[in-house]
Every structure is written in C-alpha cells, then in structure tokens.
Amino acid sequence: MVGIPALESLFAPSLHADAAEGPSSALDIEDAPLAALVDGIESDGHGLVMCMGKGGVGKTTVAAAIAVALARRGHAVHLTTTDPAAHLSETLHGSVAGLTVSRIDPAAAIQEYRAHVMDTKGRSMDDEGRAALAEDLMSPCTDEVAVFRQFSRVVQESRRHFVVMDTAPTGHTLLLLDATGSYHREISRQVGNSLGFVTPLMRLQDPVGTKVILVTLAETTPVLEAEELKADLERAGIHPWAWVINNSIAAAHPRSPFLRARAAHEADQITKVRAMAERVALIPLLPEEPIGEAKLTALTAFTTQRV
What we know:
Layout: H1 4-8, H2 34-42, E1 47-52, H3 59-72, E2 77-81, H4 88-92, E3 99-103, H5 106-120, H6 127-136, H7 140-157, E4 162-166, H8 170-191, H9 200-204, E5 210-217, H10 220-235, E6 242-248, H11 257-276, E7 280-284, H12 293-299
Parallel strand pairs: 1-4, 1-5, 2-3, 2-4, 5-6, 6-7
Helix pairs in contact: 3-12, 5-7
C-alpha cells in the first residue's frame, strides 16, 4: 500500500472484497534462473561470494542454495555467516559433501582476540602492564578489530576455493566494511608506495575474486534499501555483481486472479532492478520453505513451480 490513492482505498466502501477475483491482464515476467548465476560463479574456479541485503529478504537461503550447488558440482565450498540471527544449520538441515559450514561469532572472535593479544603482546609485561592492556582490550574498537580479523581470514580463503558468505543485515555489514576500509587506509599509510600489498578491501574491490550479490524482494522498501546499499558499496569501490529477487509471485507465473493481481504490482520493481543490474535472478514464491539439500538444490534448477 504505497501512495495516497492506495492508502485512501483502505477506507473506500465501494471496494468489494471479491474485487481481486476478477479478471487480470496477462502478466509475462521473463524467467531468470539462479542457476545462471551459479554458472558464472563457477567459471572462475574459486572466489568469494557475498550475499547482502536488508533483514528478512532471504540472504541465508540464497547463500545456502549457491553453496550447495557449487558443492554438488564437485567444488570445495566454505559457507559462513556474519549474521548473529542466521541459522545455516537449520536451512541446510544436514551435511552436504564438500561443504564446510561456519559462523563468525562476534563474542567468540572477541574472546579469541583478547586471549591472543594477552598471550603475545602481554607475555613480557609485568602485572601492572598486563592489567592496563586487559583494560584497553575492553574497548569497542577492539571488538571491531576482532570480528574484522576473522572476516579477513575468510576473505583470504577464497584465493584457494569458494567461500560463500551470508552477511548480516545492511547496517552491520556496512560497519564491517567501514572497518575494512580503515584497515586498508592504515596499511596504505604505513607502507606507502615502497612495497606491494593486498588488503581485504582490495580483494572485495576485485570483480573477479569477489562477487557481491544483492538480495531483495519485489517490493518498494526492500528494493529502495538495496539501491541505497548499492550506492554505499560503489562509493567504497565495490560493485555488485548480481541481484537476486526472492519470493517473487510474478516469477511463479500464478493462475489465481488474486495472485496475478499481486504479481502485477511486482512488475515495476522487477523492471527497476533489471535496469540497475547487469545480472538478475528471480526466485519464485514457493509453497514450502526451501530447507534441506534437495529443496535448496531445486532453487538452482531451471524448472519453475507455478502457483
């Protein structure tokens, strides 16, 4: 319900409850299978795939489907998440050959980093020095560094095999990327032009080594937020590789007049995304949640379920 006329219609007694059951115009949305994106990802043999977007759009499902597809094609794949609310194990609902699953847990990362610093830097200090160091490690900046270290390790892994990352919702991801940028600027300042170096930010900016996929819904607010995320990424020199429109009624090619009317409202948003993106995949609204290897594999098949 977007716009004044739509909002006013809520109070219009002339609208009948069965209006949606009337005939609707033909809706022809061209299929755009997720399998085509998997083909493009696989062609490089390794690399980092980052699924980004606002909360609730299906980033975890898309990341898991891509990871399962690559693993079933015989590749070693590491599926990881930076989202504290993500439940990869529930989505996978079992193990998949060739697929390793992990989670970048901020609490565990912070604890590990503090212990590492105390064991190394604090080893030669006296009690007073160690107490001061321990207090310094309680700062929020330390927390950001700890999470960034684990993120950097995952980015480095993508040089050898596929890493698929389910990121946290937009705001948290931008904070992580901001820490990545700060680290890059500090290394650049220290090293200067005298030595060659590669930072995690430089790897994220590499369109061959890193493929950022923006996940959204065919709705006004999710598309708008994904568009804003795209602008933020491009200011950091990171260009999204593809978009995935999830849970699309239009992509399911419905026969029900009510669903066809709902699908017609998605057309403008799908057209808008296609105008912004070089590559787009459409995942239709499914009758059941895609949980488990079989259903995740079906997401990357070329068949379309009709509702």
